[in-house]
Amino acid sequence: MSRIVVVGSINMDLVTQAPRFVGPGETILGERFLTVPGGKGANQAVAAARLGAEVALVGALGRDAFGDQLHAGLAAEHVNLDHVARLEHGASGTASITVAGGENQIIVVPAANACVTPAQVTAAQALIARADAVLVQMEIPLETVEATVRLGHRLGVPVILNPAPAQQLPIDWLQLARYVTPNQHELAILLGADPHEDFRDLMRHSPCPVVLTRGGEGAWYRDGGEPAHQHGFKVEVVDSTGAGDTFNAALAVFLKEGLPQAVRKACAAAALSVTRLGAQGGMPSGRELSAFLAQQAD
Ligand code: RIB
Which residues are tagged catalytic? Predict the structure, then answer.
C-alpha cells in the first residue's frame, strides 16, 4: 500500500450545470445546482485513498457548516485529518463552478486555505518522512508550497508539485521537486516562457522533470531523455472538474511501478473521473481502475 501525504486546499464546490457559459451582464437559466466537496488538495487526497493508498492531508477549514460537511466527507473517505486545522474565525474555501458541455469555469475563494502554514508542514514531518510521495498544489500560500518542496527534498521523499493555479516559481526550489505536473498553459507560466513555444521544448528546458497533461489526448512525460507520450482513453465526458487531481493522485500512488506505468494508470483514472458530475463524483476505486484497464487494447 502506498503512503501519500497531500498538502493543499479544501473547498466546497458550488456547481451549476448550464446549457452554456454566460457573458458579462447576462442571465440565463441553469439546469441543475449542487454543493459537492472539492478543492485540489482534498480531491487529490480522496482520489489517492479510493485507489487504495494510506493518505494524510495537511490543510485548513473554517468552523462553519461547509467546514463540518467537508471534514466529515474526508473522514468517510478514510483520509487522516490530524493535520487539518479548524480555524475559529473565517470561512472554509469555496469554488463557484459552471459546467457546460463537459467544460468548466471556476472561481475559487481560498478563505481558510490562505491560512495553511509552513509550520503545519513541519508538524507533519514524521508522516512525510515515511511517505512514498508528497502531493502539493498552489491553492495555498506559496511559502507553504515552498516549505513542502524543501522538506520533501531534505527527507528524500519525492514531491509532486501540481502547479495549479499557475504562477511563475523561483528555479532554486522548483528544481527540488521530483516532478511538476502542469498542462501546457501552466508550464509556460511556471517557467515564465512564451506560451506559443512548443511544449516539448519547454519540457526539455524545465529545471525539474515534467509530466504534462493534455486532457483527452493523454500526457507527455520527461525524466531525462526525450519527452514520451501516453495516449488518452476514450470516455463520455460529463464533467472534467477534478480530472487533473485524479491524474496527480494516481501518479503518486503508482509511482513505485515506474514512471511510464504510473502515467498510463493516471491517464486511465483521469478518464474515469470525467464520466460523472462533481470533482470527486467519478474518481475510481483501485478495482474500477483495474477493470477499466483490463478492457483496453494497450
Ligand atoms: O481541480 C478542481 C478543483 O479546483 C475544484 O474541486 C475546485 O474546488 C478548485 O479548487
Answer: 245
Q: Is there a contact between 237 and 101 (Cβ–Cβ < 8 Å)?
A: no
Is the distance from the beta carbon of residue 40 to the nearest atom of ligand 1 less than 6 Å?
A: yes
Distance 241 CA to ligand 1 centre (A): 7
Q: Taking residues 13-41, what's their average pLDDT?
A: 97
Over residues 48-73, the pLDDT tens digits come to 999 999 999 999 999 999 999 999 99
- Average pLDDT value over all residues in the chain: 96
13-35 as b/e, with b when 16 or more CB fall inside 10 Å? bbbbbbeeeeeeeeeeeeeeeee
Q: Which of 64, 62, 4, 74 is nearest to 36 (CA)?
A: 74
Cis amide bond preceding 165, omega within 30: yes
Q: If you measure from the C-alpha of residue 227 to the centroid of ligand 1, how many angstroms do you get, rounded to a whole number?
A: 28
* CA 59 / ligand 1 centre spacing (Å): 14
Residue 168 has a pLDDT of 95
* Top-tier CATH class for 3-20+30-294: alpha beta
Q: Report the predicted TM-score, pTM, of the whole model to 2 decimal places.
A: 0.96
Euclidean distance between CA atoms 160 and 34, whole angstroms: 31
Distances (CA, A) of 165 to 142, 149, 209: 11, 17, 19
Q: For atom 10 of ligand 1, which residue has the closest CA?
A: 39
Which atom of ligand 1 approaches the CA of 43 most closely?
6
Residue 178 to residue 193: CA distance in whole angstroms: 21
Does the beta carbon of 227 sit less than 6 angstroms from any atom of ligand 1? no
Whose C-alpha lies nearest to ligand 1, atom 2? 242
Q: Does ligand 1 lie within 6 Å of residue 279's CB atom?
A: yes
Confidence check: pLDDT of 93 > 90: yes
